[in-house]
Amino acid sequence: MINFGIVGLGRIGKVHLSNLQSYCPQAKVIAASPVKPKHKVLLEEYGIVHHCETFEEMMEVPNLDAVVIASPTAYHYDHILQAAKAGKHIFCEKPIDLNYEKVQTVTQTVAAAGVQFMVGFNRRFDPHIQQLKSVIEEGKIGKPRILKITSRDPAPPPIAFIKDSGGLFLDMSIHDFDMARYLVNDEVVQVYAHGSVFGDLPLQQYDDIDTAVITLVFKKGCMVQIDNSRYSTYGYDQRVEVFGENGMTATQNVLDNSVQIANATGHHTARSKHFFIERYAESYRNVLLDFIDTLIHKQPPSISAEDGLAALAIAMAAKKSLKVKTPISIS
Amino acid sequence: MINFGIVGLGRIGKVHLSNLQSYCPQAKVIAASPVKPKHKVLLEEYGIVHHCETFEEMMEVPNLDAVVIASPTAYHYDHILQAAKAGKHIFCEKPIDLNYEKVQTVTQTVAAAGVQFMVGFNRRFDPHIQQLKSVIEEGKIGKPRILKITSRDPAPPPIAFIKDSGGLFLDMSIHDFDMARYLVNDEVVQVYAHGSVFGDLPLQQYDDIDTAVITLVFKKGCMVQIDNSRYSTYGYDQRVEVFGENGMTATQNVLDNSVQIANATGHHTARSKHFFIERYAESYRNVLLDFIDTLIHKQPPSISAEDGLAALAIAMAAKKSLKVKTPISIS
Amino acid sequence: MINFGIVGLGRIGKVHLSNLQSYCPQAKVIAASPVKPKHKVLLEEYGIVHHCETFEEMMEVPNLDAVVIASPTAYHYDHILQAAKAGKHIFCEKPIDLNYEKVQTVTQTVAAAGVQFMVGFNRRFDPHIQQLKSVIEEGKIGKPRILKITSRDPAPPPIAFIKDSGGLFLDMSIHDFDMARYLVNDEVVQVYAHGSVFGDLPLQQYDDIDTAVITLVFKKGCMVQIDNSRYSTYGYDQRVEVFGENGMTATQNVLDNSVQIANATGHHTARSKHFFIERYAESYRNVLLDFIDTLIHKQPPSISAEDGLAALAIAMAAKKSLKVKTPISIS
Amino acid sequence: MINFGIVGLGRIGKVHLSNLQSYCPQAKVIAASPVKPKHKVLLEEYGIVHHCETFEEMMEVPNLDAVVIASPTAYHYDHILQAAKAGKHIFCEKPIDLNYEKVQTVTQTVAAAGVQFMVGFNRRFDPHIQQLKSVIEEGKIGKPRILKITSRDPAPPPIAFIKDSGGLFLDMSIHDFDMARYLVNDEVVQVYAHGSVFGDLPLQQYDDIDTAVITLVFKKGCMVQIDNSRYSTYGYDQRVEVFGENGMTATQNVLDNSVQIANATGHHTARSKHFFIERYAESYRNVLLDFIDTLIHKQPPSISAEDGLAALAIAMAAKKSLKVKTPISIS
User: Fold this and answer.
1) Which chains touch C (3 or more CB pairs under 8 A)?
2) Strand pairing of D66-69 and D89-92?
3) Topology of the domain covering C124-284+310-329
4) Chain C residues whose beta carbon lies within 8 Å of the beta carbon of residue B146
5) What is this structure's pTM?
6) What ipTM was predicted for this assembly?
7) C258 vs A128: CB contact, 8 Å cut-off?
8) What is the pLDDT of residues D81-104, one digit of tens each?
9) What is the CATH number of domain B124-283+310-329?
10) CA distance linking residue B255 with residue B273, whole number of Å
């Protein structure tokens, strides 16, 4: 049984908390921080005894084995360093940090501390994506030549969130960058990005965009086209297609339900599942189960700090490409 | 080159005329009857020189090899007998006649006269149905165990047509009965039908219905479920599914176009093709090409008068079953 | 908090147990019977303290509010009567019993005892079916005219199970009969069934079949076509289609995953989910949540003993129809 | 009645010839060039009397109104100039020419000669694309923000053809560039292309590629992602998706048939239609019908020489971008 502490009780923190207590029989959350009065009822329902005011305090809880870091991105770095120092294993939400050097420090620190570190690129653990990965691994489509990822959010987050998020590439596309690395199993050598602001939010003020098209090139030649938008009126649009030497494989959007209606205007099916909480519900469970499993079997986590670093490098190159309007090489 | 005469220049007659002149390089319509003033322009456009007032007159046209009978059902019998007597090959629209004995006479007469006779169960020549048939013939689903046919019209014909049509089973379901025989390749031994009037037309007056569910049982055991309606608000619904020992195969509705729209209310595709003229356009061409081909190669036509007789027997049994509310055996 | 006892720890009993402990925050299983040595570990994992040898013994457990009856069908009747006598609310797996008079006694007994009784027609609580029901209730397709249900199992149960199951109609089709009543919201007045044995199991010996087509007629006229098979090589096939005055609505099969593969032989998607445990996983949770909710709010359960009785009457009529080869009326 | 002469009787020339004679009642091919002995039978079947050895000779045929230019690209320029001089209207296959200045000359020459000129971007007249265009024009998805085009050939043409074709961008992607301009209804201002050779043909020798990803940016901001391959093992892959302010619309691949098979390995449908002759059969008819219609009504053709010039400019920019590895602006 692995004893967890969790930092951050916002939307995604609550998802992890609920999953750990309900779906992970070999783990238990025993501590949380920072606990405010409004969290008390929830934590009691989940049987969490240690309510800590600070992360430091949580590090002192006896028998704590690991932490889930779901605090705002700005705090990740400090929390990781403290946890590593305290010898706790770490599951950290993406992105690790917006600063490349800090993420490098993270990779070195956790390695030196001998603690396990996993970054929460949960989509790798979506059952549909795992099946797609299997199709590729089994050689059913041959070597990947073109990868296409469509990732469009139903609505932008509040401007208050956006301005500290690092922008579209670091907040949103970073999932797609990791997905590309995961599926193609190679390293990106070149990034070209184009984007603009189409919606109502004044993102220009924050040097940000709401719509982008991105081209990645992998070392072994596979080409990637990613398109992102913050304004998909028809729900969360999440599709991946891999075109290879011998065929093509793709995931389709997961709909709210499979009911079809035919009437005088045609045939109709439901919207796509609303957003990441609904669409990737299973992946959030699976990624934690996998982390716990690797801890129990004393194996390295499936997604390392280096993976976080690699995705960040692509996102930063995309940001630079958007600015200088030319492809950027990654060494 | 086969020289054709055509009788009947209504909706379906025009389809056959156009197909013969535009798509059948080895055939030519040289005569038509009964020709009224309003037909003159059309016939001239198609280069038809012999405009006959009567079928008798058309039988005298020199070098006439074959006839397409697209007259109202009530005239089929006379036209067939005259054509057979004159030694012309015959392509006849379904149903051959509403009277079982008359159709028996037809089968004997054409056989005695040594002319080729084909009944226009065009759906057998729909490319999708032909593919379905191939799947079965190639053994891909094993022996058929359950056959399901959905056949729903977008709107009923005028009451004036309906009252002389023989009713839903003889006018509409007869296509499905032939389809069942074609796909299962066996003979029906039992028929059970239930139906009623749901729509606005006072079909009860004519001992007719607008909605039916029918169960057929074949000699070798295959079971068939057919459902029919005259009121499909979402367009012509034509689906066939065959469930067998090793799998299932099915056709899907053919839509007006393949454009998909996603918006705040979901995902949407087009209506099914409107009605039989649009949905089965290719089958009408193919069935004539096949008839012409068998004439040229002096082979028996693919769909015989006996096939017409067998479908009629099922339709009549369905009619009786509806009346006596019990399954009817066919010997 | 509702305290449950559970009888029967076979396949479906374990599903209910797991759902109650993991997904029903307002309920808790505190007792189980009959407990054999092999069940101990499981029950301890779930924190169940009262391990009873018999149902009688379980009725004595203090503070027990309700029971889940997942014992073999032959025991349902006794367990229900004992539970009613002890004043416990009852959730009972389908079918209640194979004998019509006994089920009548059940309806009277639970009413007299003032306990709540719900029969586990779980499919009503499948999210897709609930959406279908909403579509109908909202009038989107108008009055239902034709209902079609395809329900085909991937493989038959062992012959040992089948011979005590009451046969295909009582064991398998009974779900479809309940579904028809639920969706059409009316009572069946006539049943016609045809079936036979296609597979290897010698079901004839037990007066049973493996394939059937069934026609139901409802009082207000809606017609139903059901087809069942025990041998669907392509997985569990569960489809429902409702054709109404103004349109059509249907559920589609739920696939194992949404990955598509295109290669030289065409486009391919996954199998349907394997069987009821996988396909209807959510419905098993939802039906218990609903039962618990009605207990808490002191409302009558959503599916009554009378619903069980009505489905049984249809199944028995189907059995009789198969035997006498004619439609059977239900009064 | 418009009298046509046709130059070039290769694959695409024969398609145009057959369409003109069989599907265009207001047009007639009366002359062909260059006629070789092997063409005689075909031309006689189509009732073409003037068999010309050269294009010059064909220009002398009396009553000739228009020409279809389906000769190899290298001859287009000369044929266009001669036809313009002779006062004949011109339907010319794409690309007009590989040289930008020559195409400019064409635009000026036909304008000065007062003859109508249409370039054969047939895909605009595909029924699915026309429906997609209508969806956009009717404002159903709002202003386009992202356009995605997938265009993958089932197999590369022979190397002998490729080396004179101008390469992937001028031969293949040029259709996609025109499609983008047609659907977005705006002008491209920037082009970025990346590509490489994955297949067996030694295209590097000819400075060509077999796989490409292309990014276009339109003046009003719409972004385009195109992906091309010469090696689609699963058939001709032709998909277009337009993502806009209020929704998304897309075409799907047209399959060989709509038959579905379900078996132990999953659900299967047919391959996509094999290649452009099959997939775009209707568009080849429609584009000619449209050209004839504009001639009859003395209106300018729907696709002008300027459209050909604009697509060529994009193709040349793509070629340059591939070489210099940076986005290229188009003024």
Assistant:
1) A, B, D
2) parallel
3) Dihydrodipicolinate Reductase; domain 2 (3.30.360)
4) 211, 213, 227, 229
5) 0.93
6) 0.95
7) yes
8) 999 999 999 999 999 999 999 999
9) 3.30.360.10
10) 5
